C-alpha cells in the first residue's frame, strides 16, 4: 500500500536511508516483471534473466536505462494531450519505477506540469473514470475500527519516512474531489522523490475518505469513493486522530505532511498535531515559506526593507493566512517590528471584502490577527478590490482566492499608480484559476511589475525586455524541508527551521544577479535547491535541539555530502536472489525485498 508495493527490512532500515549497493529480491518470473519496484524490463542482464527465471519472458536484446529512457520519451511525445501524457506516465510508474523517475528527472521542466499542477488537477477530477490501478492507502471513515490495521499493513515498522495525507476537501483550487484526492498525495510524493531524493518505497500517500459534498461525484455512477455527504464534527475528528495515532504507533519516525484539507480543518489540525509529532501543512507553511522567499528577493530588487512593505492578500484561506503569518513573523525577526505592528502592515480581503472587525465570528482563527477596524474603510466600498488598493497602497499583492481573473486591469493599474515596482503574485492553481495572467500584468503595469505565479508560465515581454516569471509553488520548498526533517529525524518542525528554509531558498534567487531573471530559482534545478534547503533545516534542527539523528556532520561541506549520499537516484541496482522461504515478510508476499534500492 505504500506508494509502491515494497517495504524494507528493519535491519537496514535506518541509515543510510538509501542503500546504493545490491539489494535482495525473492520474486521471479512474471511476478518480478509485475513489480514496479524491481522491474527493469529489457534492462535485465543475461545473468539476471537466468537467475530470476525471466528467459523467454523478454525480447532478446538487453538495453541500458538510457536506451529505455529514449524509448519512453518517444512514447511520451506521441501523446499530444497533457492528460494522456499524465496517464502514460502513471502507467510507467506502475510498471517500472526507476524508469519513471529517470525519464522525468531527465525532462523535469517539461514534465513537471504534467505530473503536478495543472494536469494532475484534471486527472484528479477524472479519477474514477481514468482509474486502472490503485496507488496509496485509502481509509474509510465508516470503518474507523480498521484504520490501525490498514495503516500497519502498509509497510514494516519504521520503514516509512514521509507520509502525505489529504481528506480531499480543497484540492489545489478545484475544491472537493473526494477519493480522487489520492492523486494529490501521490503527486506530492513523486515530487518528494524527484526533487529531494526521498526513497519512493519509504513514502506513503493516504486519502482519508470522509465522503464528498461534490454533487457531480455523488451523481456519477462510476464514482469510486464513499457515496455520502462529508462527515464532519466529532466523528471526523476521531477519524483523523485514529489515523495520526496509527502513524505514531507504526511509523514513529515518519514525517507527516497534510495537504489540501478544507479551510475549517487545515489550520485547526495543524495546531492540534504540531506539538504531537513531526508534521507540517504544505498549504499553510510551505506556501508561506516559498512566498516569503519570493517577496524577499522582490524587496531586494526594489531596494526596500521587508519591515516597510505593505501587503494585501486576496483570498484569506489556508494559503493566504499562511503567507500572512510567515511574512509577519519575518517582519518581526528580520525587521525588528513587534508582532502587532507587523500584523498592521498586512491586509486581508476575502469574499466579504476587506476583513474588518464587525465580521466577528465569521472570521477564522487564521484571519483574526489581521482584521482592521471598520472605520478605517468607512469611505470606500469594502468589496471593491481596486478601491481597497487605492486606500491601502500595497507594495505586494498576493492572490490565493481561486477567483480566476480577480486581478483586473483596473486593479493592476491602481496598484501600479502607487508604487514603482508593484509586486504581484497571482498564486491560485491550476492555471485556469490564476487571478491574472503574467503577460497582462506586465502590460498593465508598463513592464514595472515583479511577478510570480502558482502554476508555470512562459516568460513575458514588454518594450523589448524579457521577464522570467518565477513559479512560486510550495513544490520548490517542501521537498527540501521534508528531506531536512527526515534526515535529521527532527522531533518537530520549528518556526526557526522554516525561516532557515526561506533564507536558503531566497539566497538562490536569480533576481539577485539580474532583476529580470526570476524571483525564485528555476524548478529544473530543484534537486540542488532541495539539498541546500535540507542542509539549512538540519543545521537549525541541531541548533534548536530537535534533531534526533546520530552522526549529523557539523562541517558544512560534510553535511552536504551526508545529505547527498542519502538521496535516492533513479538507477538500476544489482538484484541478489534470496530464497522466499527464508526471506523477510516482504519477500514472501506482496512485496519482495529486505532492503531499499
Ligand atoms: N502556489 C502555491 O504554492 C499554492 C497555491 N494555492 C492555491 O491557492 C488557492 C487557495 O488555496 P487554499 O488557501 O488552500 O484554499 P482555501 O479554501 O483555504 O482558501 C481560499 C480562500 O479564498 C476565498 N475566496 C474565494 N473566492 C473569493 C473571491 N472571489 N474573492 C476573495 N476571496 C475569495 C475563500 O473564501 C477562502 O477564504 C488555490 O487555488 C490553491 O491552488 C494553495 C497552496 C499553495
Ligand atoms: C500547490 C498547492 O499545494 C496547491 O495549489 O494547493
Ligand atoms: Mg496544496
Count of distinct strands: 16
**Separation of the first and last Cα atoms:** 17 Å
Second rung of CATH, namely the architecture of the largest domain: 3-Layer(aba) Sandwich
The mean pLDDT is: 93
| Poorly predicted runs | 1-16, 585-597
CATH H-level superfamily title of the largest domain? NAD(P)-binding Rossmann-like Domain
Main sheet: strand order: 9-8-7-10-11-12-15
- The rough form would be described as globular
Rounded radius of gyration (Å): 24 Å
Proportion in β-strands: 5-15%
CATH secondary-structure class of the largest domain = Alpha Beta
Name the ligand types.
1,4-dihydronicotinamide adenine dinucleotide, pyruvic acid, magnesium ion
Number of helices: 24
Protein name: Malic enzyme
Binding site for a divalent metal cation: 259-260, 283
Domain Malic enzyme NAD-binding: 284-542
Family: Belongs to the malic enzymes family.
How would you describe this structure to a colleague?
With 597 residues, the protein is α/β, with parallel strands linked by helices. It has 24 helices and 16 strands. The protein has helices spanning 29-33, 46-51, 65-77, 82-95, 97-106, 108-115, 119-125, 127-130, 147-152, 182-196, 215-218, 234-250, 263-273, 282-301, 318-333, 339-343, 385-392, 409-418, 438-444, 478-488, 495-506, 526-543, 556-565, 585-588; strands spanning 23-25, 137-140, 162-166, 203-209, 255-258, 279-281, 311-314, 346-350, 353-354, 396-399, 423-426, 450-453, 460-462, 465-467, 470-471, 575-577. A hairpin with a 2-residue loop joins strand 8 and strand 9 (353-354). Helix 17 (385-392) packs parallel to helix 18 and helix 22 (526-543) crosses helix 23 (556-565). The protein is globular, with a radius of gyration of 24 Å. The protein binds 1,4-dihydronicotinamide adenine dinucleotide, pyruvic acid and magnesium ion. 1,4-dihydronicotinamide adenine dinucleotide binds at residues 170, 172-173, 263, 283, 287, 290, 314-320, 349-351, 400-403, 406, 427-429, 433, 454, 472-474. Keywords: Metal-binding, NAD, Oxidoreductase. InterPro entries: Aminoacid_DH-like_N_sf (IPR046346), Malic_enzyme_CS (IPR015884), Malic_N_dom (IPR012301), Malic_N_dom_sf (IPR037062), Malic_NAD-bd (IPR012302), Malic_OxRdtase (IPR001891), NAD(P)-bd_dom_sf (IPR036291). One of its GO terms (molecular function) is metal ion binding. Pfam families: malic, Malic_M.
